[in-house]
Structure prediction request, 202 residues.
Amino acid sequence: LIYKIIALGEKGGNAGGYLVDVNAFLKKQRDIKKYVPVVAKKQIRILLNSSIYKYKGVDLLVDAYCNLTCKSLKLVIAGRGFDIETHNENIIRINRFIEDEEVAYLFKKAKFIVYPYRSATMSGVLSLAYYFNKKVLASTIPFFEDNATLNVVLFKVNDIDDLERKMKSLIFGKNLSVDPTSYLNIYGEGTLINSYWGLYED
Prediction:
C-alpha cells in the first residue's frame, strides 16, 4: 500500500508531498535506535513531527509546554527548520530530515501528537496520526476542524492558555480514546474513489 503524504518533511517539497510505502517503513525497524538515539529510551512523549516553520506555531507549543507543572512527558520536535531557543532539558529538538523509519518509530512511541498551526490550507499530517491511531491535539484552523474525528482534540488557534489546558488533560489520560476507522474513513481507497467520482459528476 502506497499513500501520498503531503507536507511532511522536505523530501518532495512542501507543496507536492511524496510517496511513502507504509508497510515497508513499518517493517524496517532494524536498529532504529541509531537513527533516533536521543529518544531511544522508552519514556512516553509528546510529538510534533513536520518541517518546522513559524506558521506551524512551534513557539506556541514550546511556551505552553514550559508553563506546565507536570514534566512527566518529553516534548519531541522533529523535522528540518529553525532552531528553538530553550534550556528545558525535557524538550528534544531533532533538526534535520526525518527518515521514514524514524517517522514510524516516533509516532509509535508518542502518547499524543500536537499540531499547533497558526494557518494552513491543507496538510497531510493528520493522515499519519490517524494511521497510527494516535490522539491529536490541533488548533482550530479550518482544515483540522473539517477533518477532525474522535481522535482529535481542538484548542483555540493562537491561544497558549487553551493549548496548555488541553495538553494537561491529555497528559493525565483524559479523553484519550480514538476511532480506529479514522484513517480508512478519510484517507482510505474507497473514500478517495468516491471523492474523485464526486468531482467527475460535478
Residues 151 and 177 are 7 Å apart (CA to CA). The two ends are 29 Å apart (CA to CA).
